[in-house]
Write a structure and sequence with these properties.
Bound molecules: zinc ion
Distance between the termini: 84 Å
Strand order of the largest sheet: 4-1-5-10-6-7
Number of helices: 10
Strand content: 15-25%
Helix content: 40-55%
CATH class of one domain: Alpha Beta
Structural class: alpha/beta
Length: 302
């Protein structure tokens, strides 16, 4: 009788051991299916709890669901979109371009020869986006406005919001699109404004030169790839911030951000570069090629 009881206890123990081992193996396989990321570590840290629960609860699915919730949380913290909680591809593969069509709504920008700057900047932005998406691989393009609107009654707030939006989109570059004018109406050519701030200066000037090179190919005069100091905003060392808000806010967020003044819309000869839809599309294509060069975008194969 004693022997029988001993045998029974031994058998039950063996059964338990097999159960635990099988579960352990399944757990191992689950982990193997995942790429070795931070998320996996988070899963492991829960494994003790899982094993304990599995002894009490014969269906191991409940603690596993809990563990996956945790994984999702880690995914969020590491910048994943949450749809891929295993953290398979947290790395961004696309280059993100944010185009900023200058002005909008009651802020018309310059108005000459029946043309409002806010309208042509939006057209160039749309042409530029189409050119980028049609011609290059692994690229995403977002516009700070899709319509004829001013997003905030305060221009200062609005300009900062445009850059905050770019930051939210995880932009690699911000390109603000404008057209120029001058009191004498004698100005001709393209200007690109870059940041003078150390953290972003080299990157913005490189981007600015790449865009300028393409505009010059259209026959537009090079006025300069420039930066402008603020006269009333300084950092703690006394170094002036950028004068233009887009440059200034982009520097704060560490995004290379430039302002393109394509040509002078108040000068009859320069206005030829923007007088038709085809001309606007040409300007946009030049912008796109410059941006693509800076970002090293790969052309789509024919
Ligand atoms: Zn403007």
């Amino acid at each position: 009788m004693k022997k029988l009881v001993l045998m029974l206890v031994l058998l039950v123990s063996l059964g338990c051991l097999v159960l635990v081992m099988t579960y352990g193996r399944n757990q191992q396989k689950r982990n193997d299916d995942k790429s070795p990321t931070v998320s996996e570590a988070a899963g492991d840290s829960n494994s003790d709890e899982d094993d304990l629960s599995s002894l009490v609860n014969p269906t191991p699915e409940v603690p596993k669901a809990g563990a996956e919730d945790d994984l999702e949380l880690v995914g969020d913290l590491t910048g994943s979109d949450g749809e891929n909680p295993a953290g398979d591809a947290p790395k961004k593969t696309n280059k993100v371009i944010v185009l900023d069509p200058g002005h909008g709504g009651k802020r018309t920008g310059a108005v000459y020869f029946g043309v409002m700057e806010k309208d042509v900047t939006l057209k160039v932005a749309n042409y530029c986006r189409a050119y980028l998406l049609n011609n290059y691989e692994n690229v995403e393009v977002y516009l700070t406005r899709e319509e004829d609107i001013a997003t905030d009654p305060d221009i200062k707030v609005e300009l900062e919001q445009r850059v905050i939006y770019a930051k939210e989109m995880d932009a690699d570059v911000v390109v603000s699109l404008h057209f120029n004018s001058m009191e004498s109406h004698l100005g001709r050519g393209a200007e690109v404004y870059c940041s003078r701030r150390e953290n972003i200066k080299d990157a913005t000037f490189e981007l600015g030169e790449d865009v300028m090179a393409e505009l010059v190919k259209l026959g537009i005069t090079r006025r300069g790839v420039l930066s402008k100091k603020s006269n009333d905003m300084f950092d703690e060392t006394g170094d002036p911030y950028d004068y233009y808000a887009i440059n200034r806010h982009c520097s704060t967020y560490g995004i290379p951000g430039i302002i393109i003044e394509h040509c002078f819309m108040d000068n009859k000869e320069d206005a030829e570069f923007m007088s038709t839809e085809e001309a606007l599309a040409e300007l946009a294509a030049a912008d796109a090629r410059g941006i693509a060069k800076y970002l090293g975008l790969k052309k789509k194969s024919e």
